[in-house]
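User: Can you help me understand a structure? I only have the sequence.
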Amino acid sequence: MLTNLLIVLPLVGALVVWTAPLPREGTAALAVLVALAEVALWVVTLVGFDFASPVLQDSAQREWFGDLGVSYHVGFYGFSLWLAGLTVVVGAAAIGFGAWVGRDRARAYYGLMLFLIGAVVGVFASQDLLLFYVFFEAMLIPIYVLVGVWGGPNRISATVTFVIYTMAGSLLMLASIVAFGLAQGTFSLIDSG
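Assistant: Let's start by predicting it. Here is the structure, written out as C-alpha cells:
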C-alpha cells in the first residue's frame, strides 16, 4: 500500500498542479507541500521497513495479462527503498529551489518535477519488466521537456541529442525485455529469477 502511495501521490499532485488555476506562489506552495508529503511518506515507509529481511516488502500485485505473464507488481528491497528515498529528497529539494528562485512557467515546471518523481519511484519499485519499461519511458518525457525549456543556452541541441540516444537505447531495451519475457514465460523479476 505504501509503495502505491509513493508512486501515485506525486502523479496526482502533478495533475492538480497542472489543472488548478493558482497564481505562481500558490502553485509553488502546492508543489512544495506535495513534495514534502512524499518525503514524509517515504520516511514512514523507511521506519516500518525490515532491513534484516531479504524479501520484497510493501509489495502490491495485480495481474494484467495473466496469459502473457504481465502484472502490476511493485515493492521494495533495501537498496531500492534507498534509491526511492534519494529520488524524493532530491526532487523535493529541486522543487523547493524552484519555489525559492521563482521559477517561470510555474505550473509546467512543478507538474513536470512531480511527475518525474512519481515515475522514478515507479522505476525503482517495479518488479515486472514491462512495468519497469513503462515507468522508465514515462520518466523520460518530463526530462525531455525540462531540458528543452529550462536547460540553458544549448538546450535545443541537448534535447535533440538526448532524444536520439534514449530512443535508440529504449528500443533495444524493449526488444531485450520482450525476448527475455517470452523466453522465461513471464516478465516478473521475482518469478524469472
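Now, to help you interpret it: The chain has a mean pLDDT of 91. Helices lie at 2-19, 24-47, 78-101, 106-125, 129-150, 155-184, 189-192. Let me know which part you'd like to focus on.
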